[in-house]
Amino acid sequence: MEDNMNNYSDETHEVLSHPPKTIVLWGNTILFVFIFLIILLSWYIKYPDIIQSNIIITTQIPPEKLIAKTTGRIEHIFVKNRSFIPKNTPIAIIESTAKYQDICALKRLIESIDVSKNDIKFPIEETSTLLLGSVETSYTNFEKNYLAYAVNQTLQPHLIDKQAQNFELIQQESRLKLLLEQKDLVNKEIEYKKIELERHKKLFDKRVIPAQEWETKNLEYLQQQKNAKDLDSQITIIRSSLNDLNKNKKTTLLGESKDLLILKRDLILSLNQLKKSILDWELNHVIQNSIDGSITFLQIWEENQNITLGDYAFVVIPENNNLIGKVKATALNSGKIKEGQVVNIRLENYPDREFGIIEGQVRSTSLIPDHENNLLVDIDLPKGLYTTYNKKLPFQQEMSGTANIVTEDLRLIERILYRFRDLLKR
User: Chief location of this protein (predicted)?
Assistant: First the structure.
């Protein structure tokens, strides 16, 4: 090295041995600026922490898929494809041994029954020609119970007993009243007989009257007392009879109420069973919707066409419904997910390089994981299906894709510091 330096001129040797302070200063400045720029960039550059999961975009009220609950021939289709239908609209009828119109007629009749009334009415004469199929057994039981109830209400079998008991009560009360009046008279006669007996006793003691006359008056007094006791006995018997009659009357009323209660209970139970049978028949043979919306045929369905149990027949799509994303996030790091966090959505059918991504926000998370240990997350779409490229994507039910939930949008320098902190703790 020294040999090489000796080969340079004295001026060169001087420069190499003692570099100018300006060069050193500029070199340090450039190094400092470079480090400062790195730190500045690490401050402005953000490195988001994301949780990636699959997402399904659907409506807040999800579409309703209608399947066949039995195998058979389609008797009738009531609606047209892509038409709007309100909820609980019959869409199609699958054949059965019952006639749909007759089931509907019976349903209207039983819905008019008011079981809260004391006298339940049902137009049984209007049902004689109805074809009810599997509902027939339940209707026969209802019909039997209704006839028993109606006959009891019309003939009132306890009425004769009540009338006889009321008549007997009136008679016995009249007899009791007469006996009580007789008792009052007899008691007054006894008082007079007693006074008369005392007067004759004084005369007998003075030997004014003979003993026979005294004995006669004494016997008359005793006879009146006997008559009074006989009346008391009759009054007791009648009062006992009145008690028995009142007991029998209460027993009759109780029996009447009990019989009516049993008949009404059996009628209501059979009515509820009939309603259940009609509902079961409708569930099996009537395809109908439970939400408002537009109906879409999942296959080309025609009347008299066979349909199989489990076939997806129709789908009802709700209209004017807000969109929502459904995410199943794995339990790993799911504790970082909070309401309001940004979600970047990439749809499978629309490449993000061409169409952009959809921005969403975390609306809510389930309190506990599901049976697969996934956390259910609802995602709001404030801009709908407008992408970051300002393109509006056409909505299709259950659009699938990938959701990146930004749990922490950390700066690069923060991540570097976290790394150093972890190393120091170790």
Answer: membrane
